[in-house]
Amino acid sequence: MTTPTTRRPLWRRAGLLLGAALAATALTAPAATAAPNPLTLPAPTGTHQVGTVSLHLVVPARRDPWNASRPHRELMVSVRYPARDADRYPLAPQMLPGEAAGFDALNNFEGIPKGQVDWAATRSHAHEGAPVDRRGGRLPVVLYEPGTLDPRSLGTTLADDLASHGFVVVTVDHTYDASAVQFPGGGVERSVLPQEFAATKGEPAAIIALLKKVMAVNIADTRFVLDQVDALAAGRDPDAEHRALPRSLAGALDPHRIGMFGQSSGGMAALETMHEDPRITAGADLDGVLAYEQDDHTPGNPFPVATAGLKRPFLLMGKDGNDHHTVPSWGRLWHNSPGWHRDLTLRGGEHASFTDAESLLPQVADELGLPTSTVRKNIGTADPGQAVAAERAYLTAFFDEWLRGGSGGGLFNGPSPRFPVIDYVR
Fold it and tell me: Looking at the domain assignment, is residue 21 inside a domain?
């Protein structure tokens, strides 16, 4: 096990990233010049403009499991959707100031100095409050969950792209898990997981218990968000303050066509929620192992979904070296699942390659004069442009096939010369 005095964060793996924040607080950031230029995200590839709105959700019958002083569980989600006449509406920031400050303090990026990147300066390609484009009828829905400690905004590239292809994408922050969650009025709640991890004192049984609690809380949150998708589909506004929804959003969602994907623990939650909730038709796991273990390749302690298998379609996408032959929990799920499933590997990819880090960290390195080795430690050796293009294409094809009855463009029939960075794992 790596200790907090080394440069490598604890447990930088395809599972839950709990120790990295402790490691980060124990380190002195190397001196660097502040990046003067805002970071940019790649433009969506679909034909639709993209709109967005954030919703404050309150679970009235559930106390917060991480903060006993909170009588109700509260969440923030963002809804991305195909929009029209969007140019009249401002572009939404990737992160709000409070979220950006929390992310800067607790992110898992190795070798990226704290306090040197203006994470709040990046703009997404989604227009705040733009009207929904409903010319094609009700819209299929895809939920997105980030990895542990990450904010929902770290999946902006994939969320905006799916919305540009005609999907409604609901991205979820798990309060006190995500590095920081900013609520209406400016209040910010930061992650308690570094303290929770420290309280385990490294005892294996205590660590497993914490991992199980994290996953149970996140799945309960997700199932509540699914209830709010149902509310939106029925024409109701679930926002706690009942702020006005974008025009035509209420009633635009199709509650019978719902998919889910996530990176790291978000990918775990996607498939485990599929196992527990029949409302999810199809799910994609981006490099999240399905076991309560500290290493991807350690057998034991599988999630219920891995043991039971799935009858509904799922997609596995792993970093270089992670597939159903090398990750025991993936192999168990693979062999126990009678339904459609595929396994893809991002050649040269790393764990963070399935987040906005793939596009942002090369820019950070250029601005701060960081070595190429820093970028490679975080996002691997795959060409960032090719990696992002492949991830977006395969996710769109997967949800198009299973939520809209499309063909998937033939991408799941075998290796594609269009995307040489993707290995098709049989």
Answer: no
